[in-house]
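Wait, mind explaining this?

_____
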Amino acid sequence: MTATHSLPGVRVPVIAESDATGRVADLYETLRKATNMPFVHDVFRLTSTRPDLLEIVATGYTGMFGDGVLPRQTRELIAAWTSKLNHCPYCTGTHNWFLRQFGGSEELIAAVATANTPADLPLDEKTRTLIELATKVSTAAYKITDKDWDTAAKAGWTNPEILEAVFCAALFNFINRLVDATGLGDSMR
């Protein structure tokens, strides 16, 4: 069995990169390439003792942040905003950092941290419409109607773009809950 380690405050054991073997080592390499970082982020290591779950997380992340139809800046905005709505400072901070790397303005980054509604964000109408839909995915997905989808389409978003925005918001609802439930985000509170 591969050696496991503890991260401060985290409720599950994790496999260090230096100890990873087999499928975990392969997935860690996939994630390093996908993030273009020389290390594997702690959020991915949360499921490292279960390679089957790690593969799901890696597939979701690489699917969302690989080649997509939405600009990377928009995807990072959705990730940061969804995390803000879910009160997950770990993910809000991480994706606000990525938002900055992909062209988000300082004004937008500051607003994501303090805004209460999409109307409080410095966005053009088209982007605001998409963020309103992403907000509804996080706060009341069961209330999404054809009208919500049509509103985004009328603002100029294509069906593949709308689907990607909904997927991104849904993925970050999952990731936020994984981070919070395992204790990774506790140090940021």
Q: What stands out?
A: The two ends are 34 Å apart (CA to CA).
